[in-house]
Design brief:
alpha+beta; Tachylectin-2, Chain A; 14% helix; globular; binds (2R,3S,4R,5S)-2-(hydroxymethyl)piperidine-3,4,5-triol; Arabinanase/levansucrase/invertase; membrane; hydrolase; Glyco_hydro_beta-prop_sf
């Protein structure tokens, strides 16, 4: 068993009247206890109650096994550039072709592998009995109106009142262009898209809940600016839904967070203001609401060289001047925070614009740190898949209360050539087993559990069956 407090003093075992127990007595007491436990479980098993528990546990393990299946990918790199499109060869004549080059090459023969066309789209409203509830990472995913879901860099809120999930993200259904030669590919701000669902698979478009400003060029959300990674949490004290997002200018020099608020999960959200949190530049960000209702802002800062974390005020609309610097010098972005059994976990990406890179998992006993880096959580696919987070970038981790210890890893497969056609990579994430790089030990036991994200070409939540539809 894992012990949490590494500074905990060892307790002295005493028998009655303060006499110290001898070692054999201790061992025999332990053996006795184990025998009693075994006997108890046998009796429980016999009278049926234990049987139920056992069946439940077997069922639970079975469900987990399904999520943790390791699936390999065998993608053949096409012949060298010379034998292919002269245009592509001219663009990058000397570089050897890697899978990442292929991914970024608009004219790659592997395009359909990374960005399958609409023929293979996930269409929840079609009568596809055999495909119901199946996620196909990278395929076009349609909403209930038959339109591709536009919720990039998103986050998911479970709303207790309506008992629905709400998925918020960047609505990027516009042309991709560069503001100038050296600028990153961009789409003008359209707004924050919102989708609702009861089953996490069938998503109804609820509209654009925070829209771009069309005319006022001085407005933070003027269409020529940047609105990324919106996240929404609910404030029990005020009854308001609060959205935090990255707001920026086209050159990413404003580096601020924006705040908006609404009475309803489906908006409309009123935009309040933007600021540099704690006076620092802030780009990729997320918010995390803890079990005690305290919410935190986590953002990349100091030119993405480190992350900062600090609590929000009780109304979630601003923050006090409390902040900790974490993962200093590690150059991480795209933070996605979650918690399991009292430990905080975070997945981050490296900083390579829209190009994919290796994810890392981090863990901490307190959200304010000290955070430790555990290594790459990706399992399966192939080496390049694992080195590129399955050609995607983290944005959110959603807990699955039905299966404690399991989560959905929500990521974006960006398509820099046509950002509106960026795809979603949803995969099972589980916490358990010893970490690869357990930097911290407690009495010889690694302090952290492994975070694992399993590649699947096709998967579904094991408790979702067709009859649930
Ligand atoms: C990487 C970030 O994670 C994205 O949200 C976006 O800001 C791109 N960079 C822009 O290049």
């Amino acid at each position: 068993m894992r012990m949490r407090n590494k500074y905990r003093k060892p307790t002295t075992l005493r028998c009655n009247a303060g006499t110290r127990c001898s070692f054999p007595v201790l061992v025999w007491s332990l053996v006795g206890c184990l025998l009693m436990l075994h006997l108890y479980s046998l009796v429980r098993h016999k009278d049926g109650v234990g049987g139920e528990i056992q069946t439940h546990m077997d069922h639970h393990h079975h469900l987990f096994r399904e999520l943790e299946e390791v699936e390999e990918e065998d993608i053949q790199i096409p012949p060298p550039k010379g034998k292919r499109s002269p245009r592509a060869a001219k663009r990058r004549p000397k570089r050897p072709t890697t899978l990442i080059d292929e991914f970024l090459d608009e004219s790659s023969q592997l395009r359909h592998v990374f960005f399958p066309d609409e023929k293979t789209a996930i269409h929840p409203m079609k009568d596809a009995m055999n495909d119901s509830f199946y996620y196909y990472p990278g395929r076009i995913w349609l909403d209930t109106d038959g339109n591709p879901i536009q919720a990039h860099g998103g986050g998911i809120l479970y709303d207790e009142k309506s008992r629905k999930y709400y998925w918020y993200g960047e609505f990027k259904d516009g042309p991709t262009y560069r503001a100038h030669k050296k600028a990153a590919a961009r789409v003008d701000i359209i707004g924050v898209g919102c989708y609702s669902s009861k089953d996490l698979w069938t998503w109804k478009h609820e509209g654009i809940v925070l829209a771009a400003e069309e005319t006022d060029e001085t407005h933070d959300l003027h269409k020529s600016n940047v609105l990324e990674r919106p996240k929404v949490i609910y404030n029990e004290k005020t009854g308001k839904y609060v959205m935090w997002m990255h707001v920026d200018d086209a050159n990413y020099t404003k580096a601020s967070v924006g705040v908006a608020v609404s009475d309803s999960p489906t908006g409309p959200f009123d935009y309040l203001y933007s600021k540099r949190p704690h006076g620092f530049d802030s780009r990729d960000m997320t918010i995390f609401k803890d079990d005690d209702g305290v919410a935190y802002l986590i953002y990349s800062s100091e030119d993405n060289s480190e992350l900062h974390v600090g609590p929000l005020n009780p109304d979630y609309l601003d923050m006090p001047h409390v902040m900790r610097k974490i993962l200093v010098g590690q150059h991480r972005e795209a933070p996605a925070v979650f918690k399991y059994q009292g430990t905080y976990y975070m997945i981050t990406s490296g900083c390579t614009g829209w190009a994919p890179n290796e994810a890392l998992a981090h863990a901490s006993e307190s959200i304010l740190g000290t955070w430790e880096t555990m290594g790459n959580p990706c399992i399966g696919g192939n080496k390049v898949f694992r080195q590129t987070t399955f050609f995607a970038q983290s944005t959110f981790v959603l807990p699955l209360p039905e299966l404690p210890g399991s989560f959905i890893f929500v990521a974006d497969r960006w398509n820099p050539a046509d950002l509106r056609d960026s795809r979603y990579v949803w995969l099972p994430l589980t916490v358990g087993g010893a970490a690869d790089q357990p930097l911290d030990y407690n009495f010889g036991f690694p302090l952290w559990s492994r975070v694992s994200i399993y590649w699947h070409k096709r998967w579904r939540l094991p408790y979702m069956r067709t009859e649930n539809k």
